[in-house]
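Need residues for this backbone.
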């Protein structure tokens, strides 16, 4: 699995840097609030604008990539991230940062959806192995992001933003040099394709599962720094531990559980354990030790979920993988966009326990949706040649209907 072409490693490296952006701002949420006289709900909009724009922009990623090619789409996304992060670092108000984070989300959408499809199509070995490689990059980026954010944030809240711009510049150079020119798709993707893909009950069920799960995930990510009330370095270290746990289970544990118990059974149990973790955080919100421990423990469950649900999406419906990724991401980032703002609002106007209860309820609902969808996902653990044949047949039907 680890013997891959240089192009795959180039995209994987850029993915690490791109995913750093998710957790990078976590340690500086409270410093930004303190320095710019903002409330938790206002600061949490840094996540909301980023995720909302990313989700909507996922609908155009296939359209852009199929017309200008994956490599140019990747580079365009990276350049937009550089601009968004750098301008956020130069902002003077929370509103300006929120706006530039939205631009950052657009760049991330162009990059992430294309990166996953590029790694899956270019990597040696099975789809499952390619996704594990992608999730390893995701896990490493998420793990390092809070640590870098904490170190740079202890100097200035602007530091992490400028740090992302610098690292993304390196990623642009690496991608431009090592990734060969990629041809445009045989058939140009349309804006309607992701919505057509969601007609498949299996893909729609997984997407809704991910939406609800992400609601709980981003409640933990965006709101926990406020009841923890620690320094940027302290928050960074806690979420670094969370990221390490996430990376370990996504690469090492998830495939083993999948082989032994099956994809769907593992995912349902995993979501129930994530629900219990958020419930514990809701009960013992006033204990920093419990919150910090639960953050790291949650990373174990998030890692398993990320790997297996991404693989499930790639196999859930007989559609092109780029289209499946765009459709799924459009739905799931809706939960990621709403959760941070709502958690901050509930924490301000009710109490600090309620956001975690709401997050736990959302993840519990996601387990229920996935369990109800299982008849449409019975093929998930089938051999890949059979799945590839279904995808090829669907592509032939689509091309035939377009001609």
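Answer:
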């Amino acid at each position: 699995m680890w013997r891959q072409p240089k192009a795959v490693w180039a995209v994987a490296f850029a993915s690490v840097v791109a995913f750093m952006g998710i957790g990078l701002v976590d340690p500086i949420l409270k410093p930004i609030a303190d320095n710019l006289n903002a409330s938790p709900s206002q600061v949490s909009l840094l996540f909301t604008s980023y995720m909302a724009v990313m989700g909507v922009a996922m609908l155009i990623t296939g359209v852009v990539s199929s017309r200008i090619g994956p490599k140019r789409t990747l580079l365009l996304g990276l350049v937009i991230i550089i601009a968004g992060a750098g301008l956020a670092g130069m902002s003077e108000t929370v509103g300006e940062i929120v706006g530039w984070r939205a631009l950052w989300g657009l760049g991330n959408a162009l990059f992430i959806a294309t990166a996953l499809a590029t790694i899956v199509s270019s990597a040696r070995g099975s789809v499952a192995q390619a996704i594990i490689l992608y999730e390893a990059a995701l896990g490493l980026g998420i793990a390092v992001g809070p640590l870098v954010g904490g170190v740079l944030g202890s100097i200035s809240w602007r530091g992490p933003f400028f740090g992302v711009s610098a690292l993304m510049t390196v990623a642009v150079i690496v991608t431009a040099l090592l990734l060969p020119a990629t041809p445009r798709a045989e058939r140009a993707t349309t804006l309607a394709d992701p919505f057509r893909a969601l007609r498949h009950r299996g893909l729609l069920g997984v997407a809704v599962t991910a939406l609800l799960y992400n609601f709980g995930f981003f409640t933990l990510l965006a709101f926990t720094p406020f009841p923890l009330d620690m320094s940027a370095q302290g928050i960074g270290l806690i979420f670094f531990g969370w990221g390490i746990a996430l990376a370990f289970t996504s690469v090492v544990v998830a495939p083993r559980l999948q082989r032994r118990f099956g994809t769907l059974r593992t995912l349902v149990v995993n979501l129930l354990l994530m629900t219990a973790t958020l419930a514990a955080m809701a009960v013992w919100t006033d204990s920093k030790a419990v919150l910090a421990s639960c953050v790291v423990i949650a990373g174990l469950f998030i890692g398993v979920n990320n790997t297996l649900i991404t693989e499930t999406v790639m196999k859930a419906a007989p559609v092109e993988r780029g289209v499946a990724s765009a459709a799924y991401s459009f739905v799931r980032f809706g939960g990621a966009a709403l959760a941070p703002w709502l958690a901050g609002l509930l924490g301000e106007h009710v109490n600090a326990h309620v956001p975690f209860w709401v997050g736990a309820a959302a993840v519990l609902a996601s387990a229920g949706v996935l369990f109800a969808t299982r008849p449409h996902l019975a093929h998930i653990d089938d051999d890949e040649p059979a799945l590839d044949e279904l995808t090829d047949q669907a592509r032939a039907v689509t091309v035939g209907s377009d001609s």
